[in-house]
Predict the 3D structure of the following.
Amino acid sequence: IGTKFPAMGTTIFTVMSALAAETNAVNLGQGFPDFNCDPTLLADVSAAMAAGHNQYPPMPGVLSLRQAMAAKIEALYGRRYDANSEITVTAGATQAIITAVLAIVRPGDEVIVLEPCYDSYVPNIELAGGVVVRVPLTPGTFRPDFAKIGAAITPKTRAIIVNTPHNPSATVWTAAEMRTLEELLAPTDVLVISDEVYEHMVFDGAAHESVARYPGLAARSFIVSSFGKTYHVTGWKVGTVAAPAVLTAEFRKVHQFNVFTVNTPMQHALARYMDDAAPYLELPAFYQRKRDLFAAGLAKTRFKLLPSGGTYFQCVDITAVSELREAEFCQWLTREIGVAAIPLSAFYGSGFDQRVVRFCFAKQDETLNRALERLAKL
Ligand code: PMP
Ligand code: GLN
């Protein structure tokens, strides 16, 4: 049929989840919880549906949810976004990111991504006709290398996509790093798409450094959030974008014609739930305990653990366990050992192989223990 994107394959998350299902493996690959959300949130959905919230909401989203997000961002990061003109509800972070990219990237514009990066960024830029400029995070530590980022900025640079806490490496940017980014971009017109979907999963007492905390960044940024991550409902596909009014206006030009709007009852339920409580405040301790449980088990294997400062991912070096390449190792681990993981090479355009794979620990303790029993032989 004359394919438009001959090089575009199927996302690694679909591939590995399908293999895990087929082989009955414990799926620590694709990132999603295997436990249910708070029953109160489910009751809020039923209540919203019973109350008749079943037709189109306003194009930018249900106002009470935008107000709840504005209040949350202000309480946590000290910056006020106007619910009417600066916050838009999206079909998850995925649609938020592609919509932001389509809204700002013109054919030939350069967009910087920091590799390894989430697998939708590069195709999104390509779909917009932009030019992808890949800047590696520092090998080994996965920290931003500002000399390299600075060197990649040209008069054609339209935007940079940043992501902290970072998928897949589980690193968390420091305040000093955010300030450096702010200073680096100060003399430029470069826009920022800040993927903050793991904002509430930061461990060991560290703080999430939202771009909202940095005026010079906030003024040029789209902040992407996802309720799926925060409330254990990845299948609901609801998120938000917070951005200054001029950027939001551009964002909505595209949003209105790619989804128009997002399902109504979930938005009402999330708004009500956020009004009642701030359950995300418990998330760091909740996931840190799971990280520690999983890490303690892995410590008995020959995997070498990389630090996991945030997200719900744990990366391990496989060098002492296998001579296989990452992708083949993940296939082998799923089929032969019965545990699915994600190769880090999937987050690089070049398929760069550093013998590191990613496990997701957003699982019930019994699931983690079952996986650990299987991994114990390695
Ligand atoms: N960005 C990152 C870094 C992610 O890890 C994910 C989810 N895996 C997304 C965006 C997409 O989030 P959503 O499910 O809300 O579309
Ligand atoms: N963000 C999830 C991950 O990194 C997966 C989301 C998806 O399957 N697209 O595992």
Observations:
- The pocket of 4'-deoxy-4'-aminopyridoxal-5'-phosphate (ligand 1) is lined by residues 31, 92-94, 118, 163, 167, 195, 197, 226, 228, 234, 237, 239 (CB under 6 Å).
- The CA atoms of residues 119 and 347 lie 6 Å apart.
